[in-house]
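Schema walk-through. Below, the input block comes first and the output block second. Nothing else is stored per chain. Lengths vary across the set, and this one has 353 residues.
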Amino acid sequence: MRGIRVLRHGRLAYPVGTGRLALGTELLPLLPSNDIFYDPPKLRCRLDQDGYLYFKNTVPRHVVNAALDDLANQLHECGCTLDEDRARQAELNGFTMGVPYPSTCGAELPPLNIHHTNTIRNALSGTSVMATVRQVFGGAVNVTTLQTLHLGAPDEPFGFRMPSVLLNRGTKLALVALVSLHDTPLHMGPPLLVRSSNSQDTYAPLRKTYGQWEVEGDTIRGDGCYTENPAELSPLGKLPGTDEVTGAPTIVDVNPFVSSALEGGDLLLTTVYTMQAFLTNQTNCWRLMAEAVWCMDGDDVGLDPRYMGSDAPGLAMWTERRDDPAVYPKSLMEAKKEWGLVPDLAMSTRDGD
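--- output ---
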């Protein structure tokens, strides 16, 4: 009889921050909303409940490809992508996926000099995305002048945060729009969301404390992320429930981590209170995504003024000083204790004596 060797590789898991999430159990797929596009009340209901809306194939391919080529050319001019890396990737795989990360730069990249051109802006906040956002809001909309390009390097970790901490001088009814500029499989690090973190009571303590943090004007150091460890968030959504088939007691996760492989031109809309990150990019290419913030025209508060106007400063000054204890003396852990989000270890030790 011929022998058979069984190899067990375990569950497929993807890294995020300092942890990993197992596909199918800890990491679930995004739910597309294309099927309810022409039903704005259903769109708003799903947005309120889940904290996101995912639309496939929103931006035409030729528009996305033009934006990607523009950005790739700018990266090439900066020395942040090299012809030899593209040729090597094509030789190994028969094609190039995205924009290769430079293999010869070591730990230090050349200085980036990226301009947000009209070609890139057309993919991020042009007519296709605007029409979708209008459909959700049900009327005219406004978009931030200053927009963001996410350039994710290989193995670069990304922590979890609510966009509100970067936008808290504007309306809380804004929508954050992410557009994928190329096909982004799971191992390339697409966006990762915590479903219903904007609405469930399980995340209410975070929304009322951490979610109100205004990073530039407060005294807390750091990059605005709540944590880099998904294990810190995972227990929050676990609630006791009942198995629908057997009736046995079980644990229900009302705040699962969700992500999906994206295609170029896919659009992801989130609320400002939706906890989010990126899966770690495990390729040798850049992960390139673009982000803008929208609100309804006539909103009483409007968009954060730091992102509006041709000379909008954004958070440039904060970015330079955010880790300076002389400017921001309080650590995030100290803030979490003040917010009541982590136990006071010293107090716990005294209680146990």
